[in-house]
C-alpha cells in the first residue's frame, strides 16, 4: 500500500451543470488574476466560487490575500499600496461590485470609514471599497474556517470583523454558529463563557487531485515508468518499478477481514529483478527535501544528518553568506547551492517554525518540508508540483466526486475529508515564508496558490519519514525520499530501513512472522513498513492510517483480526488483538 500511487478511482460520467458553471467561472477569475494579481475584488469573487464548490480552505486563502490587499490599499507606506489602489479604482461605490452586495454589509460602514478622517474630508471611493471589502473578507474567513473545523481562527477573524462593524448582522450570526459548535466540542452549557484559547484550531479538508490540476503525471504510463526505472538504476540497481495489485484501503474497522476475496486496486510497487540476499542493501537514496525543527541543533542543512561536535567536523562546510547554515561536506553544500539554498540564503527563514510546542512538532516538520520545496521551486524557476522530488508521489487522493457535498433534500451523510488543515500552517506561515524569500505572493499566485500547497502537504503526509530526538522523544528531523516510498507497506515486511543522511533499505535477515529466512527472490515485491510492526493489529492500523490514508488491509492484519473474532465467537472487532508470539 504505497503512497506513490493511486488506486483506480471510480469516475462518474455524470456532469453537474451547476458545478461545471462554477469551474468555468473559477477559470475566468484565475485568468483575470494573472492579468491583475493586486485586484482584491477578484480574489473575493473567487473565494465565493470556491465556497460554492465546497472548498472552504481555498476560500480562506483567497479571502486572506484579499484582506492583505485591503490593508495595502489603506496604507500608503505599504509595499503594494499603489498597485492595490489602482486596482480598486477600476470599481465604484455606486454601485458596489456584486461581491460586496451581501446582506447588511454596508450598514453603518460609512460612519466607521469616516473615523480618523477630518469630518469635512470624505474618504476616497477606493478607501471606502477597501473597508467594505475587508469586512467581506472577515465574513468569508470566519465562516469558511468554521466549515474547516478551525474554530479558534474562525472566532478570531469574526471578532475582528465585529470590532470594525459592530452592527453587521452576518458576522453576529456567524459568531453564534461558531459558539454553538464550540459548546458542542468543549461540552459547554448554553450561555457558559468560551475561552478562545481553548478552541480547537486543526480541521480537515478535501484531499484530492483538484479538477484544474494539470501537473499530476500518468504514473502508469510507459514514459513515467521509464523515468522511474532509469533513476532507479543507481539508487536500487537490483530493483524495478512495476504495477502492483494491492487491497483497497478502508476507512476504519470492518467485518471483511475474514474474507478470502476482497477489493483490490492497482498501484506502483518496487520489485526485485534478481535475488537479494538477507542483509543486503536494497536501496540507497539521497534527498535534499529535508526539515529540522530545532533551532540550535547541529544538523546538515541539506541532507539532515546529525553533525558531530565541531572538533570532529573536519569536512563540515559553512555557507560564506550565512555562517549559521552548516553542511556535512562540500558535496552537500554544492547540492544545496545548485538546488535550493540561494533562495533562502541570509533571508532569516531559518528561524520560522523552529522549537515548536510538543503538540505542534509534526505540523512544524511538514511546514518546513514545504518551505524547502518552495525554495527549490523558486531557485530552479519551476512550478513546485513539477519538481521530481514530489512529482511522482501519490498523495492518498480521493476522487473529487467522493468529496463533493450533496445539497439535495434526500442527501446522505456528508463526506469525510481527510487532509489536516489549519489557517496558521496551511496559509499564514507559508505566505510569510514566501515574503521572507522576497517573493511577491500576489504575482506568483499560479505557483503558490493554496491548492498547490495542499497538494504538496498531501504528498508529504503519505511519504515523509522522521527521526525522534533521543532526549525528549519528539520528532525533530524529517525527509521525503520519493523512491523509498515506492516500496509498498506490509505488516510482514521483507525489508527494514535506516535513515542517516541516506535512506537505506536492507533485506531482512528473518521475516517478522514465523521467523522465516529473509532475503528477496527475483520477481518478488519489496515490502516496506510505515509503522512499528511489533505492535498489536489495532495499534498498527491506527499508526499506519495517517501514512497510508486508510485502514491497513494486508494479509497479516486481516488474519490476526479474523482469529480474534473466531476466539470471541462473534463478528465484533476486537481492536486490541495480540500479535502472534515470535
What strand order characterises the main sheet? 4-13-12
Proportion of residues in extended strands: 5-15%
Q: What is the terminal-to-terminal distance?
A: 24 Å
What does the radius of gyration come to?
A: 26 Å
What average pLDDT do the residues reach? 87
Instruction: Indicate the percent of residues in helices.
Output: 25-40%
For the biggest sheet, the summary is: 3 strands, antiparallel
Number of strands: 14
How many helical elements?
A: 18
Low-confidence stretches: 1-13, 571-582
Structural class: alpha+beta
Name the shape in a single word.
globular
Write up what this structure looks like:
Helix 2 packs parallel to helix 6 and helix 3 (56-74) packs across helix 4. By secondary structure, this protein is of the alpha+beta class. It is built from 18 helices and 14 strands.
State the gist of this model:
The chain has 582 residues and is of the alpha+beta class. Helix content is 40%, strand content 10%.
Q: How is this fold's topology laid out?
A:
Layout: H1 17-35, H2 40-52, H3 56-74, H4 81-88, H5 109-114, H6 125-148, H7 151-164, H8 169-186, E1 203-205, H9 222-235, E2 239-247, E3 264-272, E4 281-286, E5 290-292, E6 317-318, E7 326-327, H10 330-339, H11 361-380, H12 388-391, H13 400-403, E8 419-421, H14 423-436, H15 445-448, H16 450-463, E9 465-468, E10 475-479, E11 488-489, E12 495-499, E13 502-507, E14 527-528, H17 537-548, H18 555-568
Parallel strand pairs: 11-14
Antiparallel strand pairs: 1-8, 2-3, 4-13, 5-10, 6-7, 9-10, 12-13
